[in-house]
Amino acid sequence: MAHIPDDAAKRRAIKPVICYPNNTLPAPPMALYRAARDSARKVDEAIVPARDARCFPVPAGHFFRITSIEGPQVGDLNLWHAANLNERFYSGKTRALHGTHLTTGMRLWSSFPYLRPMATILEDTLEWYGKDEWGGAVHDVIGTRCDPYTGNLLSGSQYHHCCHSNLTRALVDHTGLQPDQAERQVHDVLNVFMCTGFTRDTGQYFMKASPVRPGDYLEFFAEIDLLGSLSACPGGDCSSEHSSDTAACFPLLVEIFQPAAGVLKGWTPPPLNGYDGSHGIA
Q1: Could you tell me the residue range of the domain that residue 93 belongs to?
Q2: How many domains, in total, are found in the chain?
Q3: Is 194:74 a contact under the CB 8 Å cutoff?
């Protein structure tokens, strides 16, 4: 063990500083969104089978809801700009701006060089959960997605129905991209309904049984034209393991709602980030 300096306690006692204070972020107009939601009618839906994924388009100004319908089940969500797959959900920057777990009023932000809101969380029936005694909370942006490469690294497995592979197949099916092209577009996720945190002693990422039950949902407002993809994780409620067929798994429901004409008067999709892109290069 390294030598402990005489001022170790003093160094540890220094108060932390928030890296990205978010009090200057533009506040989403939640009252406007909720008023528009009151008038909205369902226009489409997708059933995501257990241990599989499905893509779904959501026009700007529409709403989409992810619902547990048969049993406790977590989902891995990817989002892209519908007309430009290079603009995609940036979980790391979303985490830096809002924290490790998302809930009502928080936004999902897009990747560089776009960096703008893609979707705003309008309703979260699990908001009551808060943070438990282990530091666990719901809807995280810290886990990456279960994938076949890590499974192979740790156990030598060749498992094809983990979320990374599910999302890849769904994007191939929806877009016609070649598998290698589609896989490069799959990215770190919002872990919908998943209950996670970090252990206090080792700092390891943990999961525990999700509190989600049939009828619980997470609902979003689409800030831009979106292509979404949702995987019903092979971990089920993630109470034991994932990347296998061991856990009980259930489908998830995605519903799309269109507001009445005129109720979003004055609202426009957010512009691209205002940075000039020069990076100090002459």
Answers
A1: 39-258
A2: 1
A3: yes
